[in-house]
Amino acid sequence: MAVASVPVSHYTSDHNDVLNLRWDQGPENLFSPLAGLGFPVQRVSGAPSAPEGTAPAGAYIIPVQNGNSTYSAVEDMDAVTEFVEEGGLVVVLSANGAQEDTLKGFVPCSTTLRT
To answer: Closest Cα to residue 74, out of 82, 83, 85, 62?
Structure first.
């Protein structure tokens, strides 16, 4: 499979206050280079999905969460778990500080593996 044929879903929603797109255009700054490299990129506002007409497994990117809510608290983590179980790759970008807690909450919720 050629690299550029891997479907990419890009979380770009601010409706649940996970991202603050009025303050930071970081998600758009990530979208453009991926599309420029030839990846079939689709903006999504919720659970991982593949661009129309492509294989369901691919990559799901969650940009740095700069809103007041964490992704795992407001989005469908069962859908993320299913995506991972089907072979999908989830990339959660983080920054310093409070982002560490965001990742600690995300990882256990996104997999059926429990400690």
So the answer is: 62
